[in-house]
Q: What sequence folds into this?
């Protein structure tokens, strides 16, 4: 039986280069097994670090020729990180409603990017948000929306645009809906096959 532990304080939780390579290889192998053979890859976890067995949230983003091809994740984790990466990799490739399922002939051109999330922190003032460093989760009633930290960098949005687009485009609220919503921030350890030699 696998043993997992609660995610430690972010200062103590840091993925090594080896951890990142392991997760990227795992995501790649999982995609290939699922899409080519319809099976979920079962890794040998005996050499996995404690970090990879820690419960935490993560997103998997897939790109083809620089364009988004799928992105799904979970803000918090109740399963070990390595399993979260496997499940989100498959979901991003097959279950993202914005795209048709990834086909086997596309796999060679798919670039994988992983975002491993810190615990959520509720804020009382949006001035606490540091663009490019923090992602946001906006919740109001049954509505919620998420932007990963890199969204602000990729779009060059200012804080008002970052909040407004998340509120309107993701949470289904009006542009200023965030003003009466609960807002949480988080950081993400973001890395991909393009940056990490696997």
A:
């Amino acid at each position: 039986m696998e043993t997992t532990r609660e995610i430690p304080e972010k200062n103590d939780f840091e993925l090594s280069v080896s951890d990142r390579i392991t997760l990227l290889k795992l995501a790649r192998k999982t995609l290939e097994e699922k899409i080519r053979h319809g099976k979920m890859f079962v890794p040998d976890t005996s050499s996995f670090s404690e970090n990879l067995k820690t419960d935490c949230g993560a997103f998997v983003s897939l790109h083809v020729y620089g364009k988004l091809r799928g992105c799904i994740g979970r803000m918090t984790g109740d399963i070990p990180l390595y399993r979260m990466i496997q499940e989100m990799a498959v979901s991003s490739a097959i279950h993202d409603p914005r795209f048709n399922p990834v086909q086997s002939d596309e796999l060679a051109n798919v670039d994988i990017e992983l975002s491993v999330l810190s615990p959520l922190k509720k804020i009382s003032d949006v001035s606490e948000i540091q663009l490019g460093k923090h992602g946001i989760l906006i919740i109001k009633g049954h509505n919620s929306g998420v932007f990963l930290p890199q969204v602000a960098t990729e779009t060059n949005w200012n804080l008002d645009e970052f909040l407004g687009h998340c509120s309107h485009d993701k949470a289904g609220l009006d542009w200023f809906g965030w003003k009466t919503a609960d807002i949480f921030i988080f950081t993400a350890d973001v890395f991909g096959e393009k940056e990490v030699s696997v």
Summary: The chain has a mean pLDDT of 91.
